[in-house]
Amino acid sequence: MLMRTDPFREFDRLAQQVFGTAAPSGTWSRPNPMPMDAYRSGDEFVVSFDLPGVAPDAIDVDVERNVLTVKAERRPMADKDVEMQVSERPLGVFSRQLFLGESLDTDNIRASYDAGVLTLRIPVAEQAKPRKIAIEGAPAPKEINA
């Protein structure tokens, strides 16, 4: 369904081994500004991205061939007369690419955005859905009454 690749995952793993900076199990050594969940629900594939603080008009979702790209921009506060005391939330443009399998219908993707979560619903293509196969053969033998 979904082929996930992260070109930095192997680099992070190698750096952790070489420099001894192993992160606890299940964590990344660098923060991911666009974490996601992906799962299949019935006849659709659902992908949810956490994008808190991102305006809906600052999100772009594109599909080219079977590559889904999500770009989002977290902009600085509009008020330029503030003196920032702590700034831990990353700003700027973030993107993720997902390589979708041939079994998904990329022409009918639906997107919604609620409470800082972008949810994409990708239908499973008709040809990939399970179906019954009729078995053809000779007619059943007739019963013989004795």
TrEMBL record:
Pfam family, one: HSP20
Residue span, SHSP domain: 27-138
InterPro entries: A-crystallin/Hsp20_dom, HSP20-like_chaperone, Small_HSP
CDD domains in UniProt: ACD_sHsps-like (cd06464)
SUPFAM superfamilies, sorted: HSP20-like chaperones
PANTHER family listed in its UniProt record: HEAT-SHOCK PROTEIN 20 FAMILY MEMBER
Family: Belongs to the small heat shock protein (HSP20) family.
Protein name (database record): HSP20 family protein
Gene source species: Prauserella shujinwangii
